[in-house]
Fold:
Amino acid sequence: MNCFSQKLRRTAPMGGGSRMELVPSKPPRMNGWSWPPQAFQVAGWLVCSYLAVVSFGIYIPLLPLPWKHVAYALAGISFIVHIFAHVAVVTIDPADVTVRAKRSYSSPTALFDRSKQTHVIQDQHCYLCDVKVYVFSNAI
Structure:
């Protein structure tokens, strides 16, 4: 009996379409406030809210009196700094300056045809945005 004779790696293509099909893209997001929210955004806000409720409502009130004021001050300051940083990061538009100046965020992104080009960015040019992509750009 040989248990190693089975082929463990499946290399057959999965059911679905071809890689050359044109797939409509989602509307572009300008920043983190653009709808619909992503799963990590929702998870981040839920974890932040949960930790605030648990620390300020359960853990800190159980501390002895001299430590309670110190814990409220330290947790409050760190929570406020974190909320400001969280809001600042969500508000920033990560697009490159040339992309932001050239394209409208109201229309969906262009369709990418893999039969014409194999990659979206080739020769430092983005074929979806139709802009030149630099080495220091965020798009690479």
